[in-house]
Sequence to fold (212 residues):
Amino acid sequence: SSDNSVSLIAFTTIAFLTIMEFTVYRDTWMKYEYEVDKDFTSKLRINIDITVAMRCQYVGADVLDLAETMVASADGLIYEPVMFDLSPQQKEWQRVLQLIQSRLQEEHSLQDVIFKSAFKSASTALPPREDNSLQSPDACRIHGHLYVNKVAGNFHITVGKAIPHPRGHAHLAALVSHDSYNFSHRIDHLSFGELIPGIINPLDGTEKIASD
Ligand SMILES: *[C@@H]1O[C@H](CO)[C@@H](O)[C@H](O)[C@H]1NC(C)=O
Fold:
């Protein structure tokens, strides 16, 4: 009868709408917003993953803030001897990251899509080498995080380990021969605050090669 078919259609429609609603509900979207930080008392976390084309014993990283005090001399940073040249897989990763970066410059809403997909896939960090290269390390990967005061300051990596002295600090560079100076570097990650998967920061994947 027609009553039956009406209720059948009604039930099918209700079932369909319920399923649709449920999928929309399951589909999480993250919205990324900027806002002025009003909290002066807490420290700011800086996350770093930078590779410099010099041996670890020759380089030092630290932070100087407005008061010229050496801030927590980057204790949370790990100095890891590595090869500067990336393995084929890492090169591919870097190429993709740089491609995304250049697209992001033009299309900012792309970040939302990446953000969403990041929850399903792995992080945006550089994958480890897949080849066990036996060559001796020629570079230093400085990675980890540090906490700084929320005042103007600078983070730098330069020749020589930092040694504190009453008026600021110095880098012990006299013992390093000029031939080993090579400020070529690659920034795999540089961000502020807690780590959020899926956000691609402006300097991630950049590389500068010093030719002289
Ligand atoms: C510095 O290291 C990079 C990477 O290994 C290399 O391409 C570049 O030629 C080096 N520069 C100098 C001046 O040796």
About this structure: The helical segments are 2-26, 88-106, 110-118.
